[in-house]
Amino acid sequence: MAESEEKAEEEAAEAVKEESEEPAAEEGEVEVVEPAVDEAKPEEQAQAQEEPVAEGEGQPEGESQPEGGAETPATEESSPEGDSPEKEIKETIGDRLEERITSAEAAQSDGSKKPCTALCATILDGKPDTTKSSTNMARKFVVGGNWKMNGNKEQIGQILNFLKEGPLNADTEVIVGVPAVYLEHVKNNAPANVQVAAQNCYKADKGAFTGEISPLMLKDIGVNWVILGHSERRQIFGETDELVADKIAFALQNGLKVIACIGETLEEREAGQTETVIFRQTKAIADKIKDWSNVVIAYEPVWAIGTGKTATPEQAQEVHKALRGYISSNISPDVANSVRIQYGGSVTGANCKELGSQPDIDGFLVGGASLKPEFVNIVNAKQ
Ligand SMILES: O=C(CO)COP(=O)(O)O
């Protein structure tokens, strides 16, 4: 990483040197600087020419830049020799290019295979890198407890007690996935810092679908989250990628937030199919939705669910990172950067801290341990 940064710095310094030596020095006349970035992106040229008057980092695109301002200082005030505005422009562009190259190189040096276009965009636009294994503070840690088909009123009372006592890290979003018949009860009795999710809902608002519940019904009782596509729904109840995706799309359309579960079976992992499977499951969803802002992805390797066989932090991180890369290339870098990816599968109070310290693990979906007081420790994994 140090080497690539040095290389980027040298290259950028070289670029600045070349720029500042070229036309102005030879011809002694005013000429707008044409750095490498200009050819690739004309609007960047205009912006870059305006930037010398501003201090500090790159600005949001199009902000507070009067139209036509680019040419004014260069054409009216420059002089053939000395520290002309052109030279300052060149130096400023050089500095910024250097920062951007350094940042992009750093992103690549972590091993992520960024597509060239994303790398170029990072350099040219100065946009925050979106595909590196990130330490992005914008992704709030999110821990879900999936109670599955467990609990009665007495046990739920005990769970609510330990949730109330906590204390629960205020920087972590907490959601409990509750059997349908207890949703309203839990909603009415859970502490305010604990949200409630259904474990399933159908892709229609109402009708002849015996045994199903609709997103509208959930909203009606104040439930704002739903877990969809859990491997138990896929395996035991035969839910296909397509049905899961339809249900996710319909839930989102109706104002629910969704924990969308994906994950490979043991056979698939052993056959080297992990990425193929989770990319396929993700694509099915991506084909049906555009806005990912209300989606949390839960990566739950099926072989780790309820088995006590947790994926190692490295195994989980590897898959999360690959998935984020897939999302960056096939959905968008912005979604890759912002979507939270939980890990699920035998998460406990004992292994949560190490798992939670991985850069692409943004929380957990917890089964068995969410019924026990250790769930509080899992919620607090980042403390
Ligand atoms: O399926 C899970 C959460 O949805 C994980 O279950 P366990 O934590 O019991 O392995």
Automatic annotation (TrEMBL):
Q: Where is the composition biased (Low complexity)?
A: 61-71
Keywords for this entry? Gluconeogenesis, Glycolysis, Isomerase
What are its E.C. numbers? 5.3.1.1
What biological processes does GO assign it?
A: gluconeogenesis; glyceraldehyde-3-phosphate biosynthetic process; glycerol catabolic process; glycolytic process
Q: So what does this thing catalyse? A: D-glyceraldehyde 3-phosphate = dihydroxyacetone phosphate
In terms of Pfam families, this protein maps to:
TIM
Q: Which Gene3D superfamilies match?
A: Aldolase class I
- Provide the top EC class: isomerase
**Acidic residues bias: start-end ranges:** 1-32
State whether keyword DNA-binding applies: no
Q: Name one GO molecular function term.
A: triose-phosphate isomerase activity
Q: Where is this region: Disordered?
A: 1-88
Instruction: Identify the CDD domains for this entry.
Output: TIM
Against HAMAP family, the record matches this protein to: TIM_B
Assembly behavior = Homodimer.
- This one is known as Triosephosphate isomerase
